[in-house]
Design a protein that fits this description.
heterodimer, A: about 250 residues, alpha/beta, B: about 325 residues, mainly alpha, 14 helices, about 75% helix, binds adenosine-5'-triphosphate
């Protein structure tokens, strides 16, 4: 589904991404892990065209999307949620989701309908249900709990009906219970929609629980990839990442 | 009357007609030329301020050169009506002059906007201001055409059209308010449309829309052009009222006026800026009549709004009584 061939990116002298190759199978759920500053978010930024690739190529299906514009790549079927929640403070949950739905179909150029009564209402309803946001449907985004803000960020991505969904630390800043709830929700989403999912996560228990394939990143380079079982036994990973008696 | 509760185009048209008819009636109930003049000016300046509020209130862009478009509209109309074309067009002159004024300010806004919207924050504000001062200099420099610092002198004809003679006070009053109300209704539609929500989205978080596949720049440019064209319309009405056009209308202080109106009336309610224009005109008329310290009074009133209410009057009223 998503194929990344040896991409690199440096900022000044720092190789934030170093010859990274990743391939995601259709309908798979995958994790990208690595210590702080390993370059995980940078990879998401490269895939989505938020920043330009120095070297290498990225494909979605058969289409080469390397260094296309962020807006174009989004329309080609890649959506993301952000590490630091990235929502619209004065818009309600419902309004925000409708905006994303309209953005998907270029409906935001429409000047002749009223936004409030616009026909995407029902679809927005469904997305909110899917994301578990129905109970706060009419709440203004800035007044949501942190967890709901994270969910809204994901819901915005879901509204785009992407083929590939990138989630950057969906459980960041959550307590243990909230974390598992979020993960359950993501797993459910993935099962229902059959998107290809790539998520970044620090909690190893979570990663081993739901990821089919795990990519381990260190200093911009992939040092291991494989199933949870393989990663657990990988010496390089144990030494570099899990090393020092993780839990 | 159930449909009055619904926020839709039909309701707005209905309310617009009601307000218009009421103001026409008012013309005869209160036969004071001074008060009629204030009402006309409130609508003209209100249009000017509301057009700027598309950028400030809904898009979050502090444009500081908005008077450039007001002046462009005013001078276009004035020059058009002073030209020989009037002899050819006859009764079509005024409608076509107004359309030309809107057209010229639209083109100007497209040009200035295309350059300015690439910049953010204070740099955007500065650049809009720079363009306005450029327009101001051009008006002063082209003495033969614009009359330089004297302004567009000598008046111009206002040939009647469709039975409307803008030389007559009532006709002018009714016409100006009619055009303003139509524009306000259309603006309301724009602001409440998906397009209008796109503006709020950019204001709220300019980083996120690209990840939704949405092109901020294009949206901002369209909004900038629309704002400029409405300012041009306001300028053309002002020129019709004053039968002339003046370089001060392109001076930076003229751009500050709608900013004050927005501050006074409120940037978060649709009609805030026109309420601001009303307060502004009241201050202008009554304070200047009684004291020389107009600037001081205006400053104090704005300060008391900003520090006391912490928002414009209409914003404040809506929060207080409507819990919006
Ligand atoms: N736009 C940028 N300009 C300069 N340096 C950057 C930029 N983006 C990231 N970096 C640098 O690249 C490196 C990788 O950053 P990145 O955010 O990708 O790490 P990460 O793995 O997501 O870390 P974390 O777990 O803390 O989120 C860091 O050294 C960071 O400072
Ligand atoms: Mg990160």
């Amino acid at each position: 589904m998503l194929k990344i061939h040896g991409i690199s990116k440096s900022f000044g002298g720092i190789n934030a991404t170093n010859n990274v190759s990743i391939e995601l199978k259709p309908n798979s759920i995958n994790a990208l892990i690595g210590p702080n500053g390993a370059g995980k978010t940078t990879i998401f930024n490269l895939i989505t065209g938020k920043i330009s690739v120095d070297k290498g190529k990225i494909f979605i299906g058969e289409n080469n999307i390397t260094n296309l514009k962020e807006t174009v790549i989004t329309h080609m079927g890649i959506a993301r949620a952000f590490q630091i929640t990235n929502i619209f403070p004065t818009l309600s949950v419902k309004e925000s989701i409708k905006m994303a739905l309209l953005a998907k179909t270029h409906g935001l150029n429409n000047m002749w309908d009223r936004f409030a009564s616009h026909s995407v209402n029902e679809e927005a309803d469904n997305i909110a249900k899917l994301a578990g946001l129905k109970k706060v449907y009419n709440t203004i985004s800035s007044e949501l709990s942190h967890g709901d803000q994270k969910l809204l960020d994901i819901a915005l991505a879901l509204a785009l009906k992407p083929q590939v969904l990138l989630l950057d630390e969906p459980t960041a800043g959550m307590g243990p219970e909230e974390r598992w709830e979020m993960i359950k929700r993501i797993k459910e989403l993935w099962q229902k929609t059959k998107m290809t999912v790539l998520f970044i996560e620090h909690d190893m228990d979570i990663v081993f629980d739901i990821a089919q394939t795990i990519f381990v990143l260190q200093q911009g380079a992939i040092i291991a990839k494989g199933s949870p079982k393989e990663i657990k036994q990988n010496q390089a990973v144990i030494k570099a990442y899990l090393g020092g008696g993780k839990k | 009357m159930g449909f009055l509760k619904q926020d839709n185009f039909k309701r707005d048209v209905f309310l617009g007609i009601v307000v218009w008819l009421f103001l026409l009636l008012f013309f005869f109930i209160v036969p004071s030329a001074g008060i009629h003049d204030i009402i006309q000016k409130v609508f003209i300046l209100g249009l000017f301020a509301m057009s700027l509020n598309i950028l400030i209130g809904y898009l979050g862009l502090i444009a500081f050169g908005h008077a450039a478009f007001f002046a462009a509209g005013a001078y276009t109309l004035g020059l058009f009506l002073q030209s020989n074309v009037v002899n050819i067009l006859g009764s079509l002159s005024i409608p076509i002059a107004i359309i030309s004024a809107i057209f010229v300010s639209t083109v100007l806004a497209a040009f200035i906007g295309a350059i300015c919207i690439r910049l953010k924050d204070i740099y955007f504000s500065f650049l809009t201001l720079a363009f306005q001062m450029l327009i101001y200099s051009i008006i002063l420099a082209l003495v033969n055409i614009t009359g330089g610092d004297q302004g567009l002198m000598g008046g111009f004809p206002k040939p009647p059209f469709l039975g409307i003679d803008l030389g007559k006070p009532f006709d002018f009053y009714a016409f100006t308010i009619f055009i303003s109300i139509i524009t306000i209704i259309l603006l309301r539609q724009l602001i409440e449309s998906p397009f209008g929500y796109g503006l709020r989205m950019i204001r709220d978080n300019p980083e996120r829309p690209a990840a939704l596949g949405f092109n901020n720049q294009r949206h901002k440019l369209i909004a900038f052009i629309i704002a400029g064209s409405i300012a041009g319309l306001a300028g053309s009405l002002q020129a019709l009222l004053d039968v002339g056009a003046y370089p001060e209308w392109a001076f930076w202080a003229k751009s500050a006026e709608p900013l004050f109106m927005i501050l006074l009336g409120g940037m978060h309610s649709f009609l805030g800026p026109i309420m601001g224009a009303f307060i502004f005109e009241m201050l202008n008329d009554f304070v200047t009549a009684n004291t020389r310290y107009y600037g001081l009074v205006l400053g104090l009133v704005i300060l008391s709004f900003v520090l006391g209410l912490r928002r414009g009057l209409l914003d404040w009223l809506l929060i207080k009584f409507y819990r919006k």
